[in-house]
Amino acid sequence: MTKRILLATDGSESSRRALREAAAFARNGDMIRVIHTVEDPVTLVTSTFGKLIDLEQVRREMQREGEEHLARAVLYLREEGLDPQAHLLDLRTTGETVPEATTREASEWGADIIIVGTHGRSGVRRAMLGSVAEQILRSAEVPVMLVAGEARPHLPLRSGGHYERILVALDDSETSHRAFEYALSLARTHGATLRVVHVLDMPGPFLEGFDPAPLLGAVRAVGEQALKWATQRLHDAEVPGDVEMREIAPIGEGVADQIIAAGKAADADVIVLGTHGRRGFRRFTLGSVAEDTARHAGRPVLLLPAQAPAE
Asked: Which domain of life does the UniProt lineage start with (predicted)?
């Protein structure tokens, strides 16, 4: 099925890697719209400082740079065999913030996914997910792919579609299952293998004299059941892949650490996560698991919001 891919670009290194990722994600026939948001310089400086510079000249320069960023992105995507659109969003005209303009554009254009670098200059500044990416995740109704500035660069195949190895984190929640279905569909589309990882976030520590064996056994049984379900789904869909169970270390380690390690071990091209779920997965939207995974995975992280369609 043809997808509509919205790519936000600002000319930064993470933005350039997001551009390459959009070309990797796209298949022949998919539509790509590249957007660049021009913030109003009046809102970026204090009134005192604004008296010392020509803000209208600054705004014109920002618009010119934005058009150049879009032109370079379009040229690159055309060289990859794609037929992109370009759209410059002037926030002075719309009165919006960067995330508001991005999610509105995604909604009005009917985007199936938003791809964005997680930091850089302008509105996407911070090395953490940052306020822009957080707000996009909070309000997006479609999957959002985050490409960190430190994510490994690669060149997409010109035939369309690049992914060979996909990793999805699975627990027993509904949103996690929907993320799995999305990853399964993505693997089928790209002819990729799919590795499924379940991280045992074991409870503890326990009071002296308490026997944790039954509780720990029940937690492990839930994980085994989730992986059994995933194995059957892989078989039914005729998608090559495997399943893996990981357990976090008792001290100094979290769920994200094991997801990242699994991604590295699998040499995954992309990691897929649901944005809500139980225990360690419960705060993916703004929580430490999503943040830590996106910051340190060294590869793109595709987050599926609770309200996003599974395919």
From this structure: Bacteria
